[in-house]
Amino acid sequence: MNNATFGIEAGHFVYNGQKIRLISGAMHYFRIVPDYWEDRLLKLRACGFNAVETYIPWNLHEPKEGCFNFEGMADIRRFIKLAHGLDLFVIVRPSPYICAEWEFGGLPAWLLADANIRLRCMHQPYLDKVDAYFDVLLPLLKPLLCTNGGPIIAAQIENEYGSYGNDKAYLQYLKDGMVRRGIDVLLFTSDGAEDGMLQGGALLPQVLATINFGSKPDTSFEKLAQYQPDQPMMCMEYWNGWFDHWGESHHVRDFEDVAIELDSMLSSGASVNFYMFHGGTNFGFYNGANYFNRYEPIVTSYDYNALLNEAGEVTEKYWAIREVIAKHVEIPVDLLPEPIKKKTFGVIPLTEQAKLLDQLDSLTQPVYSVYPETMERLGQDYGFIYYRTKVSGPRTKNKLVIQEVRDRALVYLDGKYQGIIDRTDHDIGLDIGERDIVVTTPPEGSSLGILVENQGRVNYGWMLKDAKGITEGVRLGGQFLFGWDIFTLPMEDLSALSFESVASDRKSQAVLASPTFFKGSFEITEPADTFLKLEGWSKGNVFINGFNLGRYWNVGPQKTLYVPGPLLKEGPNEIIVLELHAVNEPVVQFQDHMELG
């Protein structure tokens, strides 16, 4: 394709001099297995959309400082080229920070190894890291810009910055850095339709401001016009659904309401980007968390009640929106692909087990520290971390205090489970004593072990700087405990685990002595999408053929984990479940439908 231009003339978007309106849908390549990228993009195009928007998460592409990844699920170039082949424009949001209900808002955990770092502002140590990342990322995007014959027509310089700060010099620095590295397409910002957010996050008049909202488009566009008259009106995030936290109900938004507001926006001539068109899945440990009044981790599913569900199936909302779009533009015909096959593989017994605390030396090497260190200070990003120390005795009924835990600690004394210390207990004002752990040690002393789970770094707002593990210290009564062996457990490779047979006399609802890996295998003749149900299990993670599928938790609302067919193979397949608490019976079930509610 020839080089093209996309810009603004007389208050309208124009592509190669022709007036154009953007009807875009958000889709995150990093939440979809690559085998299904084309399927999802085809469904977007078949619904009448002419553009796809995606964030670009820094933590996925630079997981360790100076080590970059653009392969497999991180192959952003392939995703953009697939969109190009389907005649879709592409809007990219490569800001250092993306929010997206994604771990740490897309920022890499290793930034927090420097306890003094200041995020998202003119702090030179932070800017140096951003520059090193942009020096690698932006040259990869440059050949894909419309000005170089590619599909990328616009790029964001920061994301909802007015919800976080007001450092205009920082926004200017990012903008100048993008231009200097050859990003010569339309640049934009996006913020909520409120005075403070637009004042802090927009970089007017040199950069187009767009707004994000879920309802009342007329009111929102009126607010934007106060700051940016005579420019195209664009909703960069039209929230047609919402995400879920663990322990709450699944969010559903009626499709009639979404369709009515879309028709209103398109009738007014505005452009719109659906957030989300297709949400996908927070595989592995990549779910984020929110902190407003308390810490709330986000579930593995990013279904979002979007036009395509988590498994990429068209919904009633899809057809309702397609009908509205057809009133305004011509809809492509014969593009919608056949539904992807879903299969039931039945009940699978997990016949082998390995206790986590017995396997520490197989999984990692301990680091000695006088005081507990955070994950980030030890070079760890995700997963679990285990702290162990010797407590002298005798001691009688000393309250154990972690100052402070992020996010959830399982406490053991001489290998025996003592209870949970959870940061959320403090957030919700749990009565003192309701979950206190009181320790008594014999004259010879005891071994104290604390397993801390990182449940996802905060992805939005003022609590963004969210180091994990034990952030300050551990006390018995008023006395800090010093001298710790620390085991980092990112759970990236489980091949060294040593399994034994599961006892045949397991009792119903057996509480585990310690977190335990359970392993099983199942044979299939034809890989297909399926859904893993863990009824009777409590909380943990699932690994399919070595792939970290994500977290499960019996508090809901998520009741099944989506297993894309490409993760399976013809013949034997391996499943490992890490259960933290209790399980009725070590069996799982693969079924052909999702449960979320």
UniProtKB/TrEMBL annotation:
Domain Beta-galactosidase 1-like first all-beta intervals: 372-489
Beta-galactosidase galactose-binding domain: residues covered: 515-573
Alphabetical UniProt keywords: Glycosidase, Hydrolase
Pfam annotation, one family: BetaGal_gal-bd
EC number annotated for this UniProt entry: 3.2.1.23
Catalytic activity of the protein: Hydrolysis of terminal non-reducing beta-D-galactose residues in beta-D-galactosides
Entry-linked InterPro entries: B-gal_1-like (IPR026283), BetaGal1-like_ABD1 (IPR048912), BetaGal_gal-bd (IPR048913), Galactose-bd-like_sf (IPR008979), GH (IPR017853), Gly_Hdrlase_35_cat (IPR031330), Glyco_hydro_35_CS (IPR019801), Glycoside_Hdrlase_35 (IPR001944)
Gene3D superfamilies: Galactose-binding domain-like, Glycosidases
Start and end residues of each Glycoside hydrolase 35 catalytic domain: 13-327
Highest taxon above the source species: Bacteria
Keyword Zinc-finger included in the entry's annotation: no
Keyword Transmembrane: no
Family the UniProt entry places it in: Belongs to the glycosyl hydrolase 35 family.
Name of the molecule in the record: Beta-galactosidase
Source organism of this protein record: Cohnella hashimotonis
